[in-house]
Amino acid sequence: MPVPVPTPSEDRQSAPSEPAADKVIRSGLEVSFKVTPADSYVLVDGTLIGRAEEWNGEKDHRSYTLPGTGSYVIKIKHSGMEDMRVMVEAAATRGVTPIVANLKALPAENVDVGDLRTVRVRQGIALKVEPDSAQVQVDGQQRGIARQYPGHFGRASELLLLDPGRHRVTLTLPGYRRYDFAVEVYAGAERDHEEVKVVLTRGASG
User: Fold this and answer.
1) At a CB cut-off of 8 Å and minimum separation 6, what does 187 contact?
2) Which of 17, 134, 183, 196 is 20 to 30 A from 63, comparing alpha carbons?
């Protein structure tokens, strides 16, 4: 459950852009970011300050100094993962306060197609999927099962041919986790077609 944003201190206005936070931290003016993935982006009151690994306070990296005492909304984000919002209540105390965050992967259906693994071809793809009985969807439309598209010797009848443009391909099978990837079809691609290998993992189906 999101934690309600506390009332900001009197010496600084709170950021109006975020109505709630995932957690609240009381800190000094110096903070460090211990984030997984380490290359996640960090925004302080909507201003990008860089990647978390640049402000982890370790080795050659420094900690981040907040502008002053008061309330700050810190957003940590990474492509394909859920954002985390942290409300920091900063006081004029010494020391470095670590902000720890482990971002969670978004469900495959919620990941923007631009953030998916992308295959670039001129015509289409072959599929090597385990299990090969996985259902294939293209942009939400059923296109049969994976074993229909082995792509032997580049035969067009055994390829998943796609119109020019960017497409979302989804593989589903009961008892296995859904898998999504993108295919970009355009005349300037290096290959006419490419074999896409996927091993589905057991778990709740998407």
Assistant:
1) 122, 164
2) 17
Q: What is the pLDDT of residues 93-111, one digit of tens each?
A: 889 999 999 988 777 667 7
Per-domain residue ranges for the chain? 3-102, 109-199
Measured CA to CA, the distance from residue 166 to residue 163 in angstroms comes to 9
User: In CATH terms, are 3-102 and 109-199 the same topology?
Assistant: yes
The phi, psi pair for 8, rounded to 5°, reads -65, 155
* Inter-residue contact 34 to 16 (CB < 8 Å): no
Q: Tell me: the pLDDT tens digits for 80-93?
A: 788 999 999 999 98
- Per-residue pLDDT of 2-34, as tens digits, reads 444 444 343 444 444 445 789 999 999 999 999
Fold of the CATH domain 109-199: Immunoglobulin-like (2.60.40)
Distance CA 80, CA 173 (A): 22
CA distance 63 to 30: 6
Res. 129: pLDDT tops 70 = yes
Residues 88, 195: Cα–Cα separation, whole Å: 48
Beta strand 124-130 with 193-199 is parallel
CATH of region 3-102? 2.60.40
Percent of the chain with pLDDT over 70: 88
| This prediction's pTM | 0.56
Please give the biggest Cα pair distance in the chain.
Answer: 71
